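seq as requested:
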Amino acid sequence: MNPLRYLLAPWWAFELATDAKSFRDNPLIGSRRLNAWGLHQKRVLLADRMAAWRRQRMEQLVSAEHRAQFARDGFVQVPEFLQTEAFAALRSQVMNHPGAAREMVQGDTITRRIALDPPTLRALPAARDLLQDPRWQGLIRYVGSYDTEPLVYIQSILTHRYDAPPDPQTKLHADTFHPTVKAWLFLTDVAADEGPLTYVPGSHRRDAARLAWEKKRSLEARDGADFLSARGSLRIDESELAELGLPKPTAFAVKANTLVVCDTSGFHARGPAVRPSTRVEMWAYGRRNPFLPWTGFDLTGWPGLAERRVPLHWAFRDRFQRWVGQPWADVGRKRPADG
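struct tokens:
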């Protein structure tokens, strides 16, 4: 047996108490025997209960209406989120801003991101105002179950840019085994046939059917053909939803100035696009160790550091790309909707 396995065993065991999710990279997380005994299933259930406990302590951050919508659907949708004048200023500033952009290609789709770092926020005062809006902060924190600052970008989705296989993000999936948050404030109208966000209402709940599905998938994911499932982002066919008592996905074909905040441990995907299209949004993302009992104490979210996290992360991966990889290519300065 490889001696390295003995040296790594304590680390693999430690990862069980973190957000580590890869069935392929951690032999304990991916163990058929341990998962037959319920390891993965118990991690899913404990993480869900911890998130519910943390949310109870943050109920004051959101309205009763939004709490009820989230409990039912796993997402909160808010049309006309900003006042007309505030949204017009945000859209104008963002769409005309040539920012330092990074891009990732997945199949025939480009995802472009511009970090809201200090220079960008100085150039876009309306974006700074958005990040300080108590409604924006409250919804993201409540859904994510942590009172911490998320990562925020200007994000563009450009579809049908290559003669390539379809974007893998069009397959329904859960990002990970535990509650997480993503938010989209759409700066452009989103048509139903131009790659809208889709979400399966109620798929964030860990009922008996979902837990049984999680256990079944944990037994086969490590050695399965789907690479992303093996890495812990489990895929599901739409035909399987009825067996879990779930409806068909909801497509967010919405007008600009609509905010959608989701628990992305529920099943979601990027809807199919039938033509080249460009979608621009203010996009936020939050994920922490799901087993922490507290809601705050995130040093990386402190003012002065929070807005520098993304550039520092990109710079780190640039510097050590040989060992850690770097899927986000530096493409120079671009406006969000540039072709």
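The chain has one domain: 12-288+300-325.
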